Amino acid sequence: MCGIVGAVAINNVVPILLEGLQRLEYRGYDSAGLVVSHEGLQRLRTTGRVLELQKLAETQQVHGYAGIAHTRWATHGAPSERNAHPHFSGSKEQNSRIAVVHNGIIENYESMRERLQNEGYWFVSDTDTEAIAHLVASNLKKIPDLLEAVCASIAELRGAFAIAVMEETRPDKIVVARNGAPLLLGLGASGNYAASDVSALLKATKNMIYLEDGDVAELTNIGYRIVNCQQGEAVHQVERTVHETQLSSEAIELGPYAHYMQKEIFEQPSAVANTLEMVLNAQSISPNLFGSEAENIFAQTRSILILACGTSYHAGLVARYWLETVAGLPCNVEIASEYRYRDPIADAGTLVVSISQSGETADTLAAMNYAKQLGHPYSLAICNVAESALIRQADLRFLTRAGPEIGVASTKAFTTQLASLLLLTATLAKMRQKLSTETELRIIADLRHLPVAIQHALQVEPQVKAWAKSFAQKRHALFLGRGVHYPIAMEGALKLKEISYIHAEAYAAGELKHGPLALVDSEMPVVAIAPNDQLLGKLKSNLQEVHARGGELYVFADADAQITPGENLHVIRLLEHGGLLSPILHTIPLQLLAYHVALERGTDVDKPRNLAKAVTVE
Ligand code: G6P
Which end of the chain is more exposed for a tag (fewer CB within 10 A), N or C? Predict the structure, then answer.
């Protein structure tokens, strides 16, 4: 993962580098560092957060007109100052250093390191990045132009990466390169910039160029040039379109909230309303919502294969129930990192649906491409980032309009994914003549009501907060659900472990007696998702099994579910009965539970340890 920023401007670039890093901290926060050119290359690094780096920059009064910066999620080498980027090659005495920041993984770094060591380069870190610095330095001996030397270097590197490079002897420019990891340029009135994502540059400019794989760009304060150096092809200058981003810097401000996660939980009514905007005023559902080719592709669709990771995978698991029940379509849901290394049997009638908040998750992208290679002709991406690789690579696309999600634990991306998947289900059902006009109108009405229903679900917060106090003392928790609510139990458990570090497991409630019941005692809270559906009777029996063994039950029930609170049986009722939308509504209290338990435990809610938001490495 990691986030990188670069800037060359007519004024001091340190503030824009730091602002950029702060916006990119969601990509990793094991250490932070920057290099600016001012009478040679000045480097600052810290194992603290970007705030720490900012303090260092202030006390040391570091400034310069060109610089590169980095926030790290450690892959090669422990999080330490020695391993923090930027990495150097060359000697300070001769003022001949190369500085590099890097996001991604260099797969052939061991052989590269050995080769460069044999050439006499001395490694001082455990990172794969340092090999890039030495490689560029080595190529610069033969090719004096930095852009061309970077081109030659990336041709020798294997893996997915984005890099930014500076040369001590040329303080007026930076060179960046993209190969499989996100990177864009920002073109401003006072300078030119590069970053891993748009949010990092919004304070400087709205004009962005999304680089393509193999692109290498040289930036100065008055201009830029881009060449493409895909392996095996001649290096040639390329033109890339300049896009004006619609994202506003307010959308990424914290505002009155204590944490981004809190903000994003409470933004869900508007996030869902924005996502469904095109449907909310319509009287019928149309395949065109998924792209102009959708009608043709959906007409050929005989089954669905969903590929995703993490929370997005849980959204896919929910969709399977909907697709089977409402659209009568067979559906497989696969963890992307597993799928890409199996030998599944392709079926030309299967539509591949990739779900991703970021659209940059390496495993999801690779799995989607693998599915295509295997012989699945069509893909649909459901994604929250318009300019992402996933959106660009898919045949059909549906954008969740949740707005930027910054908290590492996904919340509004999940519920907007679910709303989109319900819409997809209804569209496919309609095309397969499985949807009566009456049901279609009911689903549209339900979706129209969804923002209000979520608002109602949020009202249980005070009760959830009260539960969080005792919950925070526990070391383990079990989450139970049945049917379409089993993936919601999985999502609830994931949220709790991600941000509160309480070990949590989800089970299909019917599986309880096949093992996990052995864990139940007074120290093991059991959370149950208990909507009033056809499985409620069976779920209640499962709850009795817990109760009889002294377990403490925390039940989230529908307004009309007949579950009476009692000793060791706590019940929170949602204000509505959700119907088809029930999995979306039951997600809300689980997000609130994780959030408040994490607050009680004093963890770093938005930046849980060891995690990062966009997982751009395998
Ligand atoms: C990381 C994030 C999760 C997210 C998962 C998949 O693990 O922390 O919140 O669900 O990646 O990310 P994607 O962007 O593909 O949805």
Answer: C
